[in-house]
Amino acid sequence: QVQLVESGGGLVQAGGSLRLSCAASGRYAMGWFRQAPGKEREFVAAISWSGDTTYYVAAVKGRFTISRDNAKNTVYLQMISLKPEDTAVYYCAARWQRSYSTLAKEYNYWGQGTQVTVSS
Question: Would you give the DSSP letter of residue 112?
């Protein structure tokens, strides 16, 4: 059974920074998604199994950075210049294929989510 454990969420003022972590029980291509109240879950960022390929939704490009430490089976999402509209529950997800995906349906495992709240 694959386990994904997220950490690092919290409350931060607009313009601040947070780093989310997702510890996996193995090595997978990984993605970060978020869901704000009353909205559908949306793709944020993804990274391939090797870590050599990443992709971001336009709204976070230049502010968020996804990376991974394969020795620790951990993926990170560094978030800077946070905005109130970044407020959401953030989920990490893993998929068996080595390439990344932007589609939630193509991920096989999900973490429990971590709350990120950005105050104005």
Answer: -
